[in-house]
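note to self: dont lose this again. the chain is below, predicted strucutre after it. 329 aa total, dont forget to put it in the shared folder this time
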Amino acid sequence: MSFLDICELSVEGIPAVRLENEWLIVVVLVGKGADVWELMYKPLGIDLLMKTKSGLEPLHGRDLRSEPLTHYAKPYPGGWQELLPNRALFGGREIGHDREGESACVPWEFELRQNVAGEIAVRCRVALPESPLIAVKEFRLRAGKPELFVEEEVEGVGGEPVQFIWTHHPAFGEPLVDGSARIALPPGSRAFQALWYDATPDSTGLLSSFEEEVGKITLDNGRIKDLREAEQRRMDGDNCFVSLFGFEEAEVGIDNPRLGIRLRLMWDKETWPHLRYWSSNNEEMYTVALEPSNSRFSDINDSLKYGEALTLHPGEKRSAWMRLRVELL
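---
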């Protein structure tokens, strides 16, 4: 027998919506960024997303309508944020590193759709306070399907075009991520050392000089890492951040043979042709984040230089989609 349920609730005082079917429970923080805070796989009773030690506690009692955040990661709770924009230029203004992820800093309007044609959904909308963008995002669960469907539309508003980087930031954690887990990267992926590029003065050389194979990534301490392996948590663990590009299909995943499950994330490759890979395996934070993005670069000017920025003119819209599936191995 099929099962669907949707309801409003509060998490650390933040308004949220809970969607549930036979396989998944999804909690969306409509009061903060329309973040996906919980992604529970019901057969095993596990949350697939990473949470930091403090989580949402630093935001308890804070009304983001009157006191919005200035940066999506200050404080960083974990979970799945949308960084819209990650960086941007418009009308002589720039959204830089200090204000990235504006969409994750404010509440979104929302409406619930009860069981209609075997689906439940929450539709979220926000007009960003600084960037000239309006975003609409819908999360859907279908009866009998172990999948989360996400559809989005972003519109340029105001009197001038906006050029921007748009990134999703889902951070996966224990128990899905452990020493037995394998990362299924998109076929054909190459790795770009974006932080090396940023740290190189006058980076005018060939971009290929910042590329590496996904199985042989050089970390800051000189150690070599295989991006396809999730390493055990260690006291002296490492951080890794690279951008993947050149892949054929926009699908990435995590396989955990110990749990007997696999997760797959699929997305609109035309909108997000790159994938940012961030991992940390120290005592403070343990995660593998798989982040679809339209650019491999951190800086909006580099993104423009190499034709990787998105541009929306006033009244112009762009639609995109994502799908996350969890299944048994």
